[in-house]
Amino acid sequence: MIRVLENEFYYLDNFQRVLDWIGERYADLLVDEEHAFIAAFPQLPQPARALFVRMAMRKGTLFRASKLNYSEIGCPRAAAEALLPSGWIESDPVLTLDELFDLLAKPELAQAFGLTGAQKNARKADQLEALRAEPEHGADRPFSHWHPACDDLALRLLVQPLCDRLRLIFFGNLSQDWTEFVLSDLGLFRYERVEFSPASRGFRARQDIDHYLQLHACKERYYAGEAALDILADLPRHAFGNDWLDSRRERLLFQLGQLLEKERDWDNAHAVYAACRYPGARGRAIRVLEKHEKFDAAYALFETAQQAPESEAERQHLLRLGPRLARKLGHPTTRSRRATPAARLDLNLPLPGGEWRVEGVVLEHLSRADAPVFYVENTLANTLFGLLCWRAIFAAIPGAFFHPFHRGPADLFAADFYQRRRDDFDACLALLDDGRHRAAILATYEEKAGLQSPFVAWDWLGRDVIELALDCIPAAHLKLWFRRILQDVKENRTGFPDLIQFWPGEQRYDMIEVKGPGDRLQDNQLRWIDYCAEHGMPITVCYLQWEQAAA
Question: For residues 392 and 453, is the Cβ–Cβ distance under 8 A?
Fold first, then answer.
């Protein structure tokens, strides 16, 4: 049930909670500015602290006092006056013309610059462009000098980088923000409670924080469309000595390699891929060499990869690359193992009217009272896995959880995710050997209902579907699914078929992947289909055609 927050200063209490958390757990990592802020903040009057937090939590660093009108704070000017000695905000700051336009509405701009006629009615962007061309508006000046007739007060937050660093230290990332507290307090997001040890920290050294900020700046430039080579010049190439930071760096390197590959800059693309340890980089390096017609080098790297593929995805990629490279070099080709075929279902159905999806059309066609069909895709297998292995997933391993708002462990996609929790996972999977898994899964479903999880889709699957699945899917099949997910969480938690059909009376099931006209199976789907078919698990690929098209 969602509740209304009664504490008017909830945001201030949450901000102080973050400062206390950081001061207790990260004191040895903080610089003098951060120590001084954490010590000084609680000493300010409550309205001043509340105004600061309101500013820090809003977008941008420029504000008008009239827009900071909060009943619990009272007069924003008085609160700002008490905050000024801290040096964290500035009153009546010097503004550029562009910054002024961000603060003033069109009628105020017309008054400030004496705009009339067509210029007064022009779009704000056009007004700005016209005023930029006038030399007298080129000099920066205080807000009060730009618009002397305005009785409002402009304020600038001077320590936004400091606030961002504190948020980063607490969350271990810059994607989460202060709204996490509010959503949690309102009951919209609820999180598993994990015991935090002193060793449970996202950052172990100050240089970790600095490296994260370096990577974040490079990532922002990547999203802004800056040239890959310019970003690479500023991207640290050395290992950070922190696994999850290194993984972020490797992922960005891979993305920059992809940019260079799209630009057909083969030499630089290959250099990036060759130095990158992100999954798939070696396969892209081979492909770039092939595109560059350096077939000998491509084949040599292919042979190295073939001896020890990094994953099922790479093995699949090599099966395509190898024969093609061998033919280009005149080498003999070897026949690779053919994938175990899945059952095939061909349907010709009338083209429906209105809105529809091919999965829904097939679901409606196949579903019967004694054999219902559900659209589950990746949700069912992951939910059953997440419920059975809940205690292993949320085990309090150092570095896995370091603040109260984790949806899942920080090392979820790490290569050693399973190894670090082997005993816990094996104990959970052992429940599948003697039938205890059903009671365990349903008990977790009731006990943990609604808590955030990287696997459980609470809003997608009801208890009725879960019970049907437990009735109809053999425990041995579930164990095969779960073992494969644990081999490579990032890759193997996706690729499951769209639909599942249950025959409760016969305690059996069938997974059904639906492909409409022109659709092809994706690589991760092919791997799951091959795995299930190889192990005798029922799986069908349904190819749908429309009767009108076939006629």
Answer: no
H helix and E strand count, the chain: 28, 10
Nearest C-alpha neighbor of 301 from the set 312, 290, 293: 290
Question: What are the residues whose beta carbons fall under 8 Å from the beta carbon of 299, sequence distance 6 or more?
Answer: 325, 326, 329, 331
Does residue 55 sit in the same domain as residue 199?
Answer: no
Q: How many CA atoms, within 13 angstroms, populate the side-chain half-sphere of residue 178? A: 21
Given 329, 358, 385, the domain boundary residue is 329
Residue 22 and residue 170 in contact, taking contact as beta carbons nearer than 8 Å: yes
Neighbouring residues of 28: CB distance < 8 A, sequence distance ≥ 6 = none
In a domain, 211, yes or no: yes
Q: Is 500 helix (H, G, I), strand (E, B) or coil?
A: strand
Question: How many CB atoms neighbour CB 395 within 10 A?
Answer: 17
Pair 298, 443 in one domain: no
CB neighbourhood size of 477 (10 A)? 19
Write down the pLDDT at residue 338. 66
Asked whether the CA dihedral 356, 362, 366, 371 is positive or negative, the reply is: negative
Tens of pLDDT, residues 413-471: 988 899 999 999 999 999 999 999 999 999 999 999 999 999 999 999 999 999 999 99
516-523: long-range contacts at Cβ-Cβ below 8 A with a sequence spacing of 24 or more? 516/358, 516/544, 517/544, 517/545, 517/546, 517/549, 519/358, 522/495, 523/313, 523/316, 523/317
pLDDT band (50, 70, 90) for residue 2 = very low
Q: Based on the structure, what is the number of domains in the chain?
A: 3
Distance, first Cα to last Cα, the chain = 54
Nearest to 500 by CA among 354, 381, 329: 381
Q: How far apart are CA 374 and CA 359, in angstroms?
A: 10
Q: Is residue 183 part of a domain?
A: no
- The amino acid sitting at 358 is V
- pLDDT tens for 181-216 read 877 777 778 999 988 776 678 898 999 999 999 999
Pairing status of strand 539-546 against strand 508-515:
parallel
- What pLDDT score does 5 carry? 62
pTM value surpassing 0.85: no
Supply the range of the domain harboring residue 544: 343-550
Query: DSSP for 224-250?
Result: TT--HHHHHHHS--S--S-HHHHHHHH
Residue pair 310/279 in contact by the 8 Å Cβ criterion? yes
Regarding whether 526 and 380 lie in a shared domain, the answer is yes
Which residues partner with 141 through β-bridges? 95
| Of residues 522, 525, 523, the one with CA closest to residue 512 | 525
Q: What angle do CA 39, 89, 84 make, to 5 degrees?
A: 75
CA distances from 188 to 307, 459, 498 (A): 49, 13, 28
Are residues 422 and 546 located together in one domain of the fold?
yes
**Which has the higher per-residue pLDDT, 495 or 244?**
495
User: From the centroid of its chain, how far is CA 301?
Assistant: 32
Contact 205, 29 (CB under 8 A): yes
